[in-house]
Every structure is written in structure tokens, then in C-alpha cells.
């Protein structure tokens, strides 16, 4: 339990009260297998809202509430808010191995991995749960918990209702999406600060796409760690944000450390922070950042969620991302409203605004929830041939099982235009690509089943190749790409069966 004397309950705004009513009404009208996803922008007060929902759910339905998080900071933050509104609760930390018989709380808060370990040992570890609330529901790690609470309602909350894994869409687990106030409305009504955006064109040549669909850390380090990019960052800061309390987001640790060194040489107050820091050192850095008016904090990943410092005046994206979720999380760190802060500055050094649009722009989240593939494809294709700015990077398991150099030597765009130059139909490039995939799999596979397994592991690369082809041709639709992908895989499977079935 958190001492409520140390934490003052946050009063709900009118739109937050309306949200609580709407969500509870959904659960009253549905059965106990109904799962609801709720979207609200960063800074809209998701913790305050779902804490009040927990309080009222416990009172009305007389069942327990389980709240899942993926960061200990979020667990503690939630526990404080619950305690402040007089909801008894217990955090299931790594130290909690079992629950004593005399321990019976109406609300439990747990990190997903810790709870999963406890449930594997005892599937009845926490009984009597009527509602499971999932914070940052776009992360897929929570799915493993759902099997233990099939008779309970699930409420997922997120700023961006897009799964962190496109192969596991959120509409697989949630029956309905409830969309909250949009960013522009929260700004107009004085709940969020508005962003003044400054963009600087950067050359992203050399970036590679990893198996998660985003740019890899290693390739980002090479692009952003060089002298010219460091100078461009320094120039942007001095042109737009000098003297502001500034938060810089980087993709890699080496880049962030280099940023710290570059700014220190110019006499600026700056410190670096990443996930390798101890709890004590992290708290020390964050305390310094809070108390220093013109402080600059350069970081890697760690501050995208569970971090709340309203005095931030400028956000710098010193990285590129293909994740709309991450884009909104980073910018949201500057959107907290204060009496003397109605605006904050955003400096984009990763062509992210060109890729996703302005942070304040309207987004049809219902479309994103129902048709995530179409939604993402449309947004990313708006960038100037973003697929050609990058190379595909194979994950470690694939590198260990087959010769990826054989696959990397095949350039779809180059092969396509060679065909055109030689008066051969461009479609021949697809056949040559299929042959390249077949040769790579056949060389590495021990038998047919191994070959089919390798083909399954290569699906993201197959899609990457075929997307490159569709960008070369003048007319292509989502349905054509789907047809092309299905045909390609069918032919490739048949080749493998013909050649490997007898081995």
C-alpha cells in the first residue's frame, strides 16, 4: 500500500468523467467475455481514468480488478493514484512469490512477466478477477496473460491502438474500440500544450529495417553518430531551442553519448540517460533534469513511457522511426500543460513528420483498429519511397540457419530495371526473386519440413521484396499485392515440395 498522505488524488476533468461513464456502460451492457480497447492521446490522463474505473467497477460489480503494466514505474504510479482515491491495492513485484490467505485486496497491479511466472506455477494465483485493465495495450506481451482470465472483461488502454507486432492485430483480442478526445480537442480545451514543429531534411541513406519493421539500432548509430549529423543537431538546437529545457530522443546509446559530448564542448548543461543506468543513477539524472531550468537530457528509449516532466519545453527527435506509436510517445513527453506553458517546440531530424504528418493531425483510429495493415501501408507509402531508403536486416535466427548474403545480393529494383532495359517484362523480376529465395532455402534446408519452416521465417523478407516490386510498377493496389504474395508463396512451396520431398 502507498501512503495516501504522500500523494494527492487527481481530480477528473469533465471529459474524463464522461469517459469513465461510457466505459462502465459498455461493460454493463455486455457479457463477461466482452473486451474493450480505449484510445486516448498521451497526456490525456489514462491512469486517472482507469483508476477511477477500477474503483467504481469494484464497488458496482463486487469483483476484483487486475491492472497489468510493463514497467515498474507505471505500476508504482498507478498504485499511488489508486491509494489516493481509497482503493486498497497490492503490487505483484518480483519479491511477491505467493499471496497469504489473509491477504485479499480488491485490486492488484502486476508487471506482465512477473505475473505470467506466478500463473504458470499457480493458475489461480489471483482469483475472483472480473476486470483486467491493460496499460499500454499495444504491446503484445500482455496476450500471454489473457488465457488465464477468459471469464473476465478486459479493458485495454493506449494512445495508439496499433499492435507492436503487425502479425498480431489488436482486433484479435478486443471486440470494440472506444476513441477518446483527439489531440486537437485537448489542445483547444486547454488540457494539452500545442506543438510548434520545425523540420530539417536529413539523408537517411544507410538505414536498415529490422525484423520488427522499424529501423535497426545498428544502422541508426551509423547514420546519426557521424560528425555531420551531430553538427546538424547542434545547429537545430541553437537555432530553435537554445535555453529551453530540452529532451533529445536517440535510437542508440553510442549516439546519445556522442550528443552529450558534443553539447558539453559548447558549454551546455546536458546529461545522458539509458536503460543500463541503475535505479539510483536514473533518479539522480531525472532529479537534476527537473531542477535545472535550461537542462538538456539526451536519452535512448527509456523515457518514451512512464515519464512525466511537464516543464519540458522542446522535444528533439534525433532519430527516424517507422512506428507511429513511438512517434506519438516521444512527442507526447512535451505536451504536458502548465499555467505558463501553452506551447512546446518539436524539432524533427528524422523525416518523421513527413512520414506520419503533424502530431496534432486528425487520425482515424477506428480505421487503424479495423484495418491495421491498410492503415499503416497508406501512411508509410506517403513518404518519398521510404522502402528505398532502407535495406532489410535479417534477424539472428535466420542468419544462423541460411546464407543471407545470397538474399542480400538480390536487388529487386535493380533487377526490375535491368529487365525493362533488355525489353523483358518487368514481371520477370518476380520470377528471378522467387528463384533466389528457393536457392537460399534449398541450400540450407535438411528436408521439406525444414524448408517450409525457413519459408515461414522469411515471410517478412518476401513481403519486403514484393513491396519493392510494386513500387516499381505504375499501377498497384492492396488487392494486387495480396494476390502477388499468395501466388509467390504457393509457387515457392510447390518448388520446395518438388525438390525436397524425395531427399
Would you kindly provide a written description of the structure presented here, covering whatever features stand out?
- This protein is α/β, with parallel strands linked by helices.
- 46% of the residues lie in helices and 15% in strands.
- The chain has 3 domains: 4-181, P-loop containing nucleotide triphosphate hydrolases (Rossmann fold, 3-Layer(aba) Sandwich); 187-363, P-loop containing nucleotide triphosphate hydrolases (Rossmann fold); 394-500, no CATH class.
- The strands form 3 sheets. The protein has a 7-stranded parallel β-sheet.
- Helix 5 links the parallel strand 5 (129-135) and strand 6.
- The longest helix is centred in the C-terminal third of the chain and has 23 residues, at 478-500.
Outline of the structure:
With 503 residues, the chain is of the alpha/beta class. The protein is 46% helix and 15% strand.
The shape, in one word, is globular
Radius of gyration over alpha carbons? 25 Å
For the report, how would you describe the main beta sheet?
7 strands, parallel
Number of domains: 3
- The level 1 CATH classification of the largest domain is Alpha Beta
Strand elements, count: 15
Based on helices, strands and strand pairing, what is the structural class?
alpha/beta
What characteristics describe this protein?
seven-stranded parallel beta sheet, disordered N terminus, alpha/beta, globular, Rossmann fold, single chain, six-stranded parallel beta sheet, 3 domains, 503 residues
Amino acid at each position: 500500500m502507498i501512503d495516501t498522505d504522500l500523494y494527492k488524488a487527481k481530480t477528473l476533468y469533465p471529459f474524463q468523467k464522461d469517459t469513465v461513464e461510457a466505459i462502465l456502460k459498455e461493460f454493463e451492457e455486455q457479457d463477461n467475455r466482452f473486451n474493450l480497447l480505449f484510445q486516448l492521446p498521451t497526456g490525456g490522463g489514462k491512469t486517472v481514468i482507469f483508476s477511477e474505473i477500477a474503483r467504481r467497477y469494484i464497488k458496482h460489480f463486487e469483483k476484483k480488478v487486475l491492472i497489468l503494466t510493463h514497467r515498474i514505474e507505471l505500476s508504482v504510479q498507478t498504485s499511488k493514484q489508486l491509494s489516493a482515491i481509497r482503493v486498497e491495492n497490492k503490487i505483484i513485484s518480483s519479491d511477491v512469490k505467493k499471496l497469504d490467505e489473509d491477504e485479499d485486496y480488491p485490486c492488484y497491479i502486476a508487471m506482465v512477466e512477473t505475473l505470467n511466472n506466478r500463473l504458470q506455477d499457480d493458475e489461480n494465483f489471483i482469483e475472483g478477477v472480473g476486470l483486467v485493465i491493460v496499460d499500454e495495450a499495444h504491446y503484445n506481451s500482455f496476450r500471454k496473460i489473457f488465457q488465464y482470465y477468459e471469464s473476465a472483461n478486459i479493458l485495454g488502454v493506449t494512445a495508439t491502438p496499433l499492435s507492436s507486432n503487425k502479425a498480431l492485430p489488436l482486433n484479435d483480442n478486443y471486440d470494440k474500440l472506444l476513441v477518446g478526445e483527439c489531440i486537437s480537442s485537448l489542445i483547444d480545451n486547454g488540457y494539452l500544450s500545442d506543438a510548434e514543429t520545425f523540420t530539417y531534411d536529413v539523408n537517411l541513406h544507410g538505414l536498415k529495417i529490422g525484423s520488427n519493421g522499424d529501423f535497426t539500432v545498428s544502422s541508426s548509430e551509423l547514420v546519426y553518430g557521424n560528425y555531420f549529423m551531430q553538427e546538424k543537431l547542434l545547429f537545430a538546437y541553437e537555432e530553435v531551442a537554445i535555453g529551453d529545457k530540452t529532451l533529445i530522443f536517440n535510437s542508440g546509446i553510442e549516439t546519445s553519448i556522442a550528443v552529450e559530448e558534443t553539447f558539453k564542448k559548447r558549454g551546455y548543461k546536458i546529461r545522458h540517460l539509458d536503460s543500463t543506468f541503475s535505479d539510483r543513477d536514473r533518479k539522480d539524472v531525472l532529479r537534476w533534469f527537473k531542477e535545472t531550468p535550461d537542462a538538456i537530457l539526451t536519452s535512448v528509449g527509456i523515457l518514451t513511457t512512464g515519464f512525466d516532466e511537464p516543464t519540458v519545453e522542446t522535444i528533439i527527435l534525433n532519430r527516424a522511426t517507422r512506428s507511429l506509436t513511438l512517434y506519438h510517445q516521444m512527442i507526447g513527453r512535451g505536451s504536458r500543460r502548465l499555467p505558463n506553458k501553452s506551447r512546446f517546440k518539436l524539432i524533427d531530424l528524422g523525416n518523421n513528420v513527413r512520414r506520419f504528418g503533424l502530431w496534432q493531425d486528425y487520425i482515424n483510429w477506428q480505421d487503424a483498429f479495423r484495418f491495421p495493415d491498410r492503415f499503416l501501408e497508406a501512411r508509410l507509402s506517403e513518404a518519398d519511397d521510404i522502402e528505398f531508403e532502407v535495406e532489410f536486416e535479417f534477424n539472428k535466427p535466420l542468419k544462423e540457419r541460411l546464407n543471407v548474403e545470397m538474399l542480400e545480393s538480390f536487388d529487386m529494383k535493380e533487377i526490375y530495371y535491368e529487365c525493362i532495359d533488355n525489353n523483358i517484362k518487368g514481371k520477370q523480376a518476380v520470377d528471378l526473386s522467387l528463384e533466389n529465395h528457393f536457392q537460399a532455402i534449398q541450400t540450407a534446408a535438411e528436408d521439406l519440413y525444414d524448408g517450409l519452416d525457413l519459408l515461414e521465417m522469411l515471410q517478412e523478407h518476401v513481403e519486403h521484396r514484393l513491396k519493392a516490386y510494386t513500387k516499381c510498377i505504375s499501377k498497384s493496389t492492396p488487392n494486387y499485392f495480396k494476390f502477388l504474395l499468395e501466388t509467390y508463396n504457393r509457387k515457392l512451396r510447390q518448388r520446395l515440395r518438388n525438390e525436397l520431398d524425395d531427399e
